[in-house]
Specification:
Elements (H helix, E strand, L loop, with lengths): L2 H19 L7 H13 L3 H7 L2 H15 L2 H20 L11 E9 L2 E8 L6 E9 L2 E9 L1
Antiparallel strand pairs: 1-2, 2-3, 3-4
């Protein structure tokens, strides 16, 4: 076999492997969800901070209370919310996300919004829907629900 042909076969094999593993585009909604699961597993607070949209998360989780606060109290409230969320994901009740061996069931993108549905490979009846928004050119998660 010619040397160039061998390199071409190796290159095509590598590209196909990357596409099949979902690693080719870590900034896709699907890639962002998989990064999230890996960051929870590794308890990587810095990565989680980059993946989650805390401004949107707080509106989803505690919008009425947050909106009713005087402006000078909103920043400390958001900082406390962020710290509690990161702690819950890395040490608390949401740590289970790091143990999920996930398969992506569906990915829907509409402009700057997306939804990715994953299920557990071991228990296909357990599924989670992640809602994402594009912020500053990156996909960020702002809602996770069990479905």
């Amino acid at each position: 076999m010619e040397k160039r042909h061998v390199w071409a076969v190796l290159l095509v094999t590598c590209i196909v492997s990357l596409l099949a593993s979902g690693c080719a585009d870590k900034n896709s909604p699907r890639g962002t969800v998989m990064l999230f699961l890996g960051a929870v597993k590794a308890a990587n607070r810095v990565e989680l901070d980059n993946i989650l949209s805390f401004d949107r998360l707080i509106i989803e989780e505690d919008g009425e209370k947050y909106a009713s606060l005087p402006p000078q109290e909103q920043a400390p409230y958001l900082a406390n919310f962020k710290e509690n969320m990161l702690t819950s994901l890395t040490k608390g009740k949401l740590r289970f996300f790091g143990q999920i061996d996930a398969q992506v069931r569906d990915e829907r993108v509409s402009g700057d919004k997306a939804e990715v549905v994953i299920y557990e490979k071991e228990n296909k009846s357990k599924a989670y829907a992640f809602t994402l928004a594009r912020e500053g050119g990156k996909w960020k998660i702002y809602r996770i629900v069990t479905i």
